[in-house]
Amino acid sequence: MEAKYSEAEPLLKSVLPKLEENLGKESQQVIGCLRELAECAGGLGRLEEARKLIAEGMVRLSDAGAMLSEKEREGYLVLFKEVEMRVSGWELAVR
After folding, report:
1. Within 10 Å of residue 92's Cβ, how many Cβ atoms?
2. Shortest CA distance to 16 belongs to which of 32, 3, 39?
């Protein structure tokens, strides 16, 4: 699984600034990209980085305002919570 994370991460990192520039920092695509980057960082053992990306995504989610419906916001919140739970699991496995 680590191979997939290491393949996906550079692609996500390269597309994130373009998404931010073209769609806005609180767009659905940017928020989704941050979630995916958090998943990659966690899967690659960089748990602190994963937690920071989750926190950044949650801030952008709350700042999205009218860009997201309440249902979309709740959906992203669930997705971030799922990544947070996986990161916590990886953290326990490392100990």
Report:
1. 8
2. 32
